[in-house]
Design goal:
Blueprint: H1 3-24, E1 28-29, E2 35-36, E3 50-53, E4 56-60, H2 65-71, E5 77-85, E6 101-110, H3 114-136, E7 153-155, H4 156-163, H5 167-174, E8 179-182, E9 205-210, E10 215-222, H6 227-236, H7 245-253, E11 258-264, H8 265-273
Parallel strand pairs: 1-5, 7-8
Antiparallel strand pairs: 2-4, 3-4, 5-6, 6-11, 8-9, 9-10, 10-11
Helix pairs in contact: 1-3, 1-8, 4-5
Bound molecules: adenosine monophosphate (AMP) and magnesium ion.
Length: about 290
Amino acid sequence: MKREALALEVTSVVLGASRDFLVREGFVELLPVILAPVTDPLRTTPEWAVISAYGRSWYLTRSMIFHKQAAIRVHPKIFCFSPNVRLEPAERAQTGRHLFEFVQLDLEVRGASREEVMDLGERLLLHILSQVRRECGKSLEREIPEYSRPFPRISWQEARQEFGEDFEVELSRRSKTPLWLVDFPIDQREFYDREDPKRPGVLLDMDLLYPEGFGEALSGGEREYQLERLKARILRQGLSLDAFRPILALAADGLPPSAGFGIGVERLVRFICGFPHVAQVRLFPRVPGEEAPL
Ligand code: AMP
Ligand code: MG
């Protein structure tokens, strides 16, 4: 089968298997939000995509983090296939992992702990992989191993000490199984990841890394929901309270505690298919710094 067709088939199975799994777990699907007055600060992606309409500016959403926090006020378990526009620096075209328009499967659970969403993430991934093996196994150019749960985990500090600056690349390259990276230091992540009340300066968050050098699969964690703590975190990162007024207004009105994560769909399909670049997953890829014929 041609790679383009294989990518389409695998993507379709990934979407279907995710939906089936999450609906069975009691989730409801939210329609995506593409334009918003506020979006994810993402300090490592300095450029913002903005359009002007009706006399004001609208961001193209970089993630639905704030919408997820608002949505779980209405329903305890939500997910969304969320198109994100992130104007990644052009040199990230070379990582094999970056597009400037991509889709995440983004989910959030009211009242959940990090442990609970890590458990959910493992079961979701294994369900998707077994569905893909069943439906597309013959067309795949590689075999996806059976992974066992729980996946191993390592703290950010430990990983850094053991593997140096490039620990994420190293860990992913050496590993034969998906693995968790947990407990990021407070200044390594955005203000909405919750600080562990028992370990100041350490976040209750995580990344999942794919094995065989495919790199980051998902990011998530428990969320900060208390107004004063949110304000302190925004200021600590040198951001203005005014820019994040909508989320502060929600917190003032009462945000429930929650945890969740976002898993990149193109990266997941790339990993399953064993492709060198995420662009090969999309029929109409948006590669940082490159032209698009259509
Ligand atoms: P983040 O919250 O920034 O970690 O994004 C959530 C997930 O979306 C990541 O773990 C990746 O799987 C995926 N992702 C993030 N940025 C990109 C990108 N530029 N291109 C493709 N996938 C991405
Ligand atoms: Mg991430």
